[in-house]
Amino acid sequence: MTRRTRIILLSLGGFAICCALILGTAYSQGADPFHPRSRHIWGASLLAAAYASFRGAMMLDRMLHWNKHGKAARPKLRGMGVLKSDHAINRRMAARRERVAAAQEKSDPTEENKRD
Fold this sequence. Notes:
The chain is mainly α. The protein is 72% helix and 0% strand. The chain has 4 helices and no strands. The chain has helices spanning 3-28, 39-69, 88-106, 109-115.
């Protein structure tokens, strides 16, 4: 089965579940989703369910693909290592700290007394 076919099948299954949940919730609250005055809002909820099921199917397919092909298929997540020292802001801050420390070492202790 190709990935595209698997995504379509997962989407259809998820959409069927979402439709059942939407209709079940509507009828349990005493609303009629097929009434002419409220038909458009329930149609919009079905569009949202279609989108959510498609996105969910894509994520589930990625997870299944990763499990099948191991760690080599997983993408490198760049945003997960924000606190590592190889980022530009961390390098600039380290250079600034060094400049401040060097400037503090250069300054005379007599100049500090003159200011007071």
